[in-house]
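User: Can you predict the 3D structure for this chain?
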Amino acid sequence: MLKQFIFTASCFLFLLVPGSCVSGQKNEIQEFENSKIYPSVACTADTNTTYALFLPPQYEEGKPCPLLILFDPSGRGVFPVNHFSSEAGKNGFILAGSNNSRNGMDFEQTTAIYRKMLADITKRFNIEKKAIYVSGFSGGSRVAGAVAITEAGIAGVVGCGAGLPAINRNPAGPFSYLAVVGNQDFNYTEIKQLDAMLESAHYQHHLLVFDGIHQWPPKALLPDIFAWLRFDAMRQQAIPADRNEINQFIQKNDKIAGELATEGQLPAQQAVFIKMLHFLKGLTDVAPLQAEITRLASDKKIIAYQKQQQKLLDLEQELQQKYSPELNLKNVDWWKNQAAQLQSLTKQSRKPEVNQVYQRVLAFLSMNCYMYSNDAFKRGNLVSAGKYIEIYQLVDPANTEHRYMAAKVAARNQDPDACFIALNQAFDLGFKDINRMKADPDFKAYQEDGRFKSLLNRK
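Assistant: Here is the predicted structure, written as structure tokens:
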């Protein structure tokens, strides 16, 4: 049952900066153009609830259209809408990105936001009720999962960078699940385990892995995501089955599988067959694919590969369990040595998948340092916050957030020199969120300082 693995899924929510949103006016008479992105559409029933909107070029008032609702962890609805809009336009999906849902909210709040959005969208536009999908990144992925579990009428979820939330109940209705994760994402192991559980539970599912960190999927992966959505909508009989589209998918991936076989890359070839099986199930005869997958499963190369992959997952879990308690127990000097060792291990092996284990462990520690330092800061424990921020910098030196947080601690300690040193370091690392800095109450006393004004010109 899905309930079994929903309850075991971990739930990491880490507070990010709220995105700004501007409520629209007189939306009840607003007309919307196809192929245009609207950053903020206010719900007519509650103008404080807004969403970014994109209508595909194919949208017609009299023709039901599939819908994809997006949840960004920092409430930047326009970001995923803009990111997905090109492929959504090609594939005929309406996009709506919440400007209100963000990390730090409980699921009752975010689900209420979803309900208001859906009510408003279905009032304004002709939505295909059998093709309502939800997606999100990081904490937004867990929001999408929560919506699918608790609300009826969700056809499927595209979960990016995080798995399902810890909600101990059976789903309100069946839904498909496409997981998307970077091979350096700290949630990689969790999502791999979720994918195996979905397979055991006989869910319509697939896992797409890209080369990258904890982030929204790169644009190169979006065609696969929308191919999944269209095929799933065809399975739901929400849109007509397109035999030409299905055949093109088969031909493209069959060619890739053949090339991999010629190169002797049998695990990669099997992965392509598994992808084809998951995408095409319910649309065409997949028995030949299942036969090939079963045949390859007995190959010595694939058996050895799978054993090695399990060893790497076990190693990653062992390292996470080893280092997690040490964040509280060990001092900064101890962490200097450990962080240096882990960083060296990201480059030592000739096998990328081994290096990626240590990259993910560092990312895991970075995420935990953020959470611990933010929690200590909220409680007013600036000494503990400062310690976690120092460790944060050691395990993730290129991240802008630890310098920004160090500046906030310095501001709370009434040390403007240290504050501006840290802020300049954040900008050196690529910090660009001027609006966040201007709105931050910890920097209010410094806004007339020439050093603060100089920072506003750094972009």
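Residues 352-378 form the longest helix (27 residues). The beta strands are 37-43, 46-54, 65-71, 94-98, 127-137, 156-160, 176-182, 205-210.
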